[in-house]
Amino acid sequence: IVGGTPGNSPWTVSxxxxxxxHFCGGSxxxxxxVISTKQxxxxxxxxxxxxxxxxxxxxxEPKEGEPSTQSIALNKIVCGPSESHLVLLQLETPxxxxxxxxxxxxxxxxYIVPEGTSCEIAGWGETKGTGDETVLNVAQMQVQSxxxxxxxxxxxxxxxxxxxxxxxxxxxACEKDYGGPLACQNSDCWVLEGVIIPMRRCGHPGQPNIxxxxxxxxxxxxxxxxx
Amino acid sequence: xxxxxxDFQRSEGRELVPWKADRVNILPGISLEECAKRxxxxxxxxxxxxxxxxxxxxxxxPWVGNTEIAExxxxxxxxxxxxxxxxxxxxxxxxEDYRGHVSKTKTGRTCQQWWSKFPHDHKxxxxxxxxxxxxxxxxxxxxxxxxxxxxxxPERRYESCNIPQCKDEVCITCxxEDYRGQVDxxxxxxxxxxxxxxxxxxxxxxxxxYPDKSLDDxxxxxxxASPMxxxxxxxPDVERESCDIRKCSxxxxxxxxxxxxxxxFRGRxEDYRGxxxxxxxxxxxxxxxxxxxxxxxxxxxxxxxxxLEExxxxxxxxSxxxxxxxSRAQMRTALCLQIKRCADDIEAEDCYNGNGKNYRGxxxxxxxxxxxxxxxxxxxxxxxxxxxxHPEANLTExxxxxxxxxxxxxxxxxxxPxxxxxxxxxxxxxGEGPPIIMPPEGVVFDECGKRDDRKxxxxx
Lengths: 227, 460
Hints:
The structure holds two protein chains of two kinds. By secondary structure, chain A is mainly β. Helices cover 7% and strands 34% of the residues of chain A. Chain A has helices at 146-153, 218-226; strands at 5-6, 12-16, 22-30, 33-37, 52-55, 70-79, 86-91, 118-123, 137-144, 161-164, 181-186, 189-196, 209-213. In chain A, the strands form two sheets. Chain A has a six-stranded antiparallel β-barrel with strand order 8-9-10-13-12-11. In chain A, strands 2-3-4-7-6-5 form a six-stranded antiparallel barrel. In chain A, a hairpin with a 2-residue loop joins strand 3 and strand 4. Chain A is globular, with a radius of gyration of 16 Å. Chain B is mainly β. Chain B has four helices and 19 strands. The longest helix of chain B has 10 residues, at 32-41. The chains are: A mainly beta, B mainly beta. Chains A and B meet through strand 6, strand 12 and helix 2 of A and strand 18 of B.
């Protein structure tokens, strides 16, 4: 995260490859499923042997035996509708919820988050020199309407995407944050409104951030989990 | 040039859980090769966990995973290496190194314990090096009959246990592209080089790049449609050699006729069995059983399931389409692209309106090209949505439909056991945008994401 600060996000998980290396973020949408982005994987049929989701820690390289850390093998990958760039990852065993590991709720189907809603992104990705890359970083941002956002991106932001406002100093997601959450607060509830996807530049000053709008795919997420 | 790892079978992302911590020999910071070497040299080591994160740790263990006391669990930070002689269910040569758990002879008699002299007295005494454990079949004297034992039957002093030779245990059909057995020596007896190593021979067959070829350890495999399974050898002077593996005596199971095509081809045309016998430009093909004008390795009797009859266009090597050797000496091979692709193999030029709930077309493939499962059968997936539950949805055969009004278009259950359902290879008709997003009036969350946000003062 560029321009973030160390923080807490109990639904954000770290996806690890066979060497245990963090490569992307994800969000726990229930105890057995993590949502992330397709760009983190080479295909929808990738062999997930040795891949895992790590949660319950703010450290990118938690010490062995740290009691709150959970590392759960990934069992299955299901790709979302083509334009969604989303994937659901099934965990081999359910995550145990506690004060460091929690699920985030899904928005209502086709719900549009009001402009100005307070949200945050979280991840263990690159900070481009703006912070400590050994811990989870979090950055707050506000929702921007698609019409406003399209003024900057010249109409390229689609209905299944959403934006947050820009910062003069540059704040945004970066390499290895992809797949992580844009979590927005609705009274005392945190809702997964967006999924971080790669952009051309990380935290570029004055540039809004674009996310996949999760509410467009809630029906698919529920269908996969039910089936 | 032999790697110490050749004695071991690797299980990626697995850990053998120690049941007695005091019997684990922990060696931190040594290389994988060194870990294997020391395990091979140790009398008490049969397997090792190689932990590579957060730091390198080699853990020697005196047992393997196929025993009752052992538990193997997944661990992304660790690979398990087990000595082949302890886990192999077959023998190489006379089986002097066999350390398996068979304890019955070929006639079903139970073996006598090696430490016991009753009912048969004998000269052998179990030691830490000779492997004479319990009453397991062994070959301490290098007998040609393979592993044997004294029997508990007073009338029968000893008998062979008939442990199969590894080269006979799993037989091959055709050219052995599906062979997944445990032979790790070539026809001349040379030991195979591990596929995950580049020494002594550099090669392209890195296991992670060919996940469907099962390039495990240093076992013989056939990733390139050679006539037989083969391997790179540990002899620097011999790059690769075929392996000696028994051919199955029964004819290979013919695929169901529906898999083969005669008038057109699907995919890369490996199942094309038609009678086109000239190239795209009209040059007659050379017969597969002839070696002139072009010498070639595709003998019909070796590639018996590839349909190499007469001089018909075929695809025995996974090329892009059926092909043949041409009858002209100047042109070795050519594709037979005049053979048409089957209609159901061509991406549909169909489209759906809205969310496709009223789509009644004949597309029956997912966007990844996987054939749809019939709506009215329950294999490989149990269909919760079927013609009985949704009689109005026109769930005919395995056509893509949208019985549940999925916003993302027609879908189907797939014939891939690993993919329950997927969206179909069909696009929304031009000019139609995605469904309009309607903001709900009141937001209700059934399950809520909460967290304990500590107060800043308390944190300080």
